[in-house]
Amino acid sequence: MASALINVPAKAKRGDIIEIKTLMSHIMETGYRHTASGEVVPRDIITSFTCRFNGNEIFRADLFPAVAANPFFSFFTTATESGKFEFEWIGDKGFSETASASISVE
Amino acid sequence: MRFLGAIAAALLVAGAVGAAEIPQADRRSGYSFMKPDTKTMQDDDTANPGMLWVLDGETLWNRKVGSAGKACADCHGNARNSMKGVAISYPAFDKATGRPIDLEQRINSCRTNHQQATPLPFESRELLALTALVARQSQGASIETGADPQLAPFIAKGRELYMQRQGQFNLACANCHDDNWDKRLAGAAITQGHPTGYPLYRLEWQSLGSLQRRLRACITGIRAQAYDYGAPELVELELYLMSRARGMPLEAPGVRP
Asked: Known Pfam families for this protein (chain B) (predicted)?
């Protein structure tokens, strides 16, 4: 079960600075831990997060083992036109999740 | 002589009361001990990682399981309406077993009896998700656990356990959470031990967890043997703590450091 929580304002005025918040469920296993019997717990993390607006990339982050479980991102952008934000998380073990949110700009 | 007798009687009374319980007006949720950034994390539904479990819970609520082929929603409808104010009375008295059961156990008894499905393991993502979904519907409502008079003997047992010194450190819950709640232990606030936010997301756990998990961690911390998940003693302790927190608002899913 992978689930994402997205917070994008539904409406904004042209030129407004808006905050975008995303939360993705993921264990972010570092790869540095061992089981009781000494075996390494394989790394299982999200490695990349991207946000596109109407097809153009506006935010990207690379993630590393030090990032806590269930990574939370908050970033800002300027509202220029109505459209769709698309979010993408990519990680180890073929992890790939997407989400989207629309905004109407007046 | 009569005067000395009066002192002795006063001492006896004081002795009988034992560890001083926290007056109602001074009761503080663990929330009030947190730093502003952790508070913000709990207050904002899109920053509170506990909401990820609530989201999963909504999916599970509508999924048909077990040989009865029923989903929770088939009997209970929309959880947002039907589960409103349910969690504030848990642990509650269960007629079938004649004992108190907590919210997790109530969900599992529903699964076994009505969905004819296997019970979910304690601390499994599914059980935590369903519990979080149910508890979320009571967010902000005042805790009412213990109003049922049938619970009285079990609350008394839970209180006894709370006051009982145990483990290699020979500490009772009360030694920290009633007597020293305004102090710090290894840099962390001790707090009053009111379980107002469960199931809650602990940053230390990197996950949502139940009150039973928290209690087991505390019991291990005083170097006593922790009770197994679902043990009657743990449920009685949960029951006492929730009844002790009566009147405080439920915060589930909470966030704690």
From this structure: SoxA-TsdA_cyt-c
Residue with tokens 């590393």: A64
What would you measure as the largest C-alpha separation in chain A, in angstroms? 60
- Please report which confidence band the pLDDT of residue B172 belongs to, taking 50, 70 and 90 as the band edges: very high
Enumerate long-range contacts of B36-43, CB under 8 Å, 24 or more apart: B38/B203, B38/B255, B38/B256, B38/B257, B41/B255, B42/B197, B42/B251, B42/B254, B42/B255
Quick check: A23 contacting B, CB < 8 Å? Answer: yes
Number of helical (H) and strand (E) elements in chain B, helices listed first:
11, 7
- CA B39 vs. chain centroid, Å, equals 19
State yes or no: pLDDT of B13 exceeds 90.
no
- Look up B225 and say whether it is catalytic: no
ipTM reported for the complex, 2 dp: 0.90
Longest dimension (CA), chain B: 77
**Region B171-177: what's the mean pLDDT?**
97
Alpha carbon separation from B118 to B62, B65, B67, B108 (Å, rounded): 17, 9, 10, 8
Boundaries of domain holding A18 = 4-33+41-105
**Which domain covers residue B146, as residue numbers?**
29-257
pLDDT digits (tens, 9 = 90+) for B96-107: 999 999 999 999
The Cα of B248 is separated from the nearest Cα of chain A by a number of Å equal to 28
Among A19, A21, A25, A32, the residue to mutate for chain B (most B Cβ within 10 A):
A25
Distance between CA atoms of residues A46 and B255, nearest Å = 23
Q: DSSP class of residue B70?
A: B
Give the residue-averaged pLDDT of A74-90.
97
> How many domains is chain B partitioned into structurally?
1
pTM for the predicted model, two decimal places? 0.91
Tell me the CATH number at A63.
2.60.40.10
Distance between CA atoms of residues B255 and B249, nearest Å: 14
